[in-house]
Amino acid sequence: MNIREEQEKHEHEHFSQYASFSDQSKGRDRIEENCPMRTIYQRDRDRILHCKAFRRLKHKTQVFLAPEGDHYRTRLTHTLEVAQIARSISRALRLNEDLTEAIALGHDLGHTPFGHAGERTLNEICPMGFSHYRQSIRVVEMLEKEGKGLNLTWEVRDGIVNHRTAGNPSTLEGKVVRLSDKIAYINHDIDDAIRAKIFSENDIPKRYTKVLGNTTKSRLNTLINDIIINSMGLDNIIMSDEVHEAMTELRQFMFGSLYMNPTAKSEEVKAYKLITELYNYYMDNIEELPNIYKLFIKERGEAPERVVCDYIAGMSDQYSVTKFEEIFVPKSWKG
């Protein structure tokens, strides 16, 4: 029995007509023999789950840099919450959960140390610019597996690069992840901000909580149910005007109250300085990059500026601090 073929048959019998069917994928850049056990999107999910970049997410900042507490989100826990929300929506709409999960697990692989502060820093100092969603594609296409990449399907890569607010994913599964990303970070960042005493639940304007709810659980239920109800039977993923407007305005509230809050962002100046110094150092000392990155420059013709960004973006928060200390902080004499 070919289990993969049975699963593909099951998809056609039970999925929505608007779902992405595994046996109709546009495929990979490098053709591979099909797995007898797993569908093409299941393989993609597994490749992302087992890659090094995914494991490093556990030591990368979500909002709070080096928080003193075990319960603040990291980039990894954010990714898992996005995947859970997206799978719930896809299951209810009878879409392809495996494709949805693969996109969700891979959407932030290109994030820098120190969260969006690190992303802004690299974008400012690198003449070629930098964005985490484009970097996520470089990770899966080129940087992973010692330069071979993960050889993911077109649909997964399309969902990853289009997960940003301005993105327009080609599949409904990608559209689900795009909205799930916002739902996840708005709600878990509120939870973290309350934990950090940046603001309280009562500080959230009532015009938002009246529509969405006044707890994390109620807001998640409202947003997820609204997408499911309004997208059922459609070749699109949409929200009601009222709920979408409330979510968008709540996101703006978060920018003013948390993302730009001087207390929450107090360490970002240091992160900017650290990443800038590392970038300048490696640009002046290319020979000190790991061998695989030097090969990207010498054998593949990649621009040094881009490869230095690749190396720094792949660092965890702590690893970047360690490298900074090795390079710039004097060590005690050990005679």
Which helices and strands occur, and which strands form pairs?
Layout: H1 3-14, H2 40-50, H3 52-56, H4 75-92, H5 97-106, H6 115-125, H7 132-147, H8 154-161, H9 172-195, H10 206-212, H11 216-231, H12 241-259, H13 268-284, H14 291-298, H15 304-313, H16 317-328
Helix pairs in contact: 2-5, 4-5, 4-9, 4-11, 5-8, 5-9, 6-13, 8-9, 9-11, 9-12, 10-12, 13-15, 13-16, 14-15
Which key features would you list for this structure?
about 325 residues; mainly alpha; about 0% strand; flat
Helix content: 55-70%
N-C termini distance: 67 Å
Described by strand count, sense and barrel closure, the largest sheet is: none
Q: H/E order of the elements? A: HHHHHHHHHHHHHHHH
Mean pLDDT: 95
- Which structural class best describes the helix and strand composition? mainly alpha
Q: Per DSSP, what share of the residues sits in E-state strands of 2 or more residues?
A: under 5%
Give a quick summary of the entry.
The chain is mainly α. 61% of the residues lie in helices and 0% in strands.
What does this molecule look like?
The chain has 16 helices and no strands. The radius of gyration is 21 Å and the shape is flat. The N and C termini lie far apart (67 Å). It has helices at 3-14, 40-50, 52-56, 75-92, 97-106, 115-125, 132-147, 154-161, 172-195, 206-212, 216-231, 241-259, 268-284, 291-298, 304-313, 317-328.
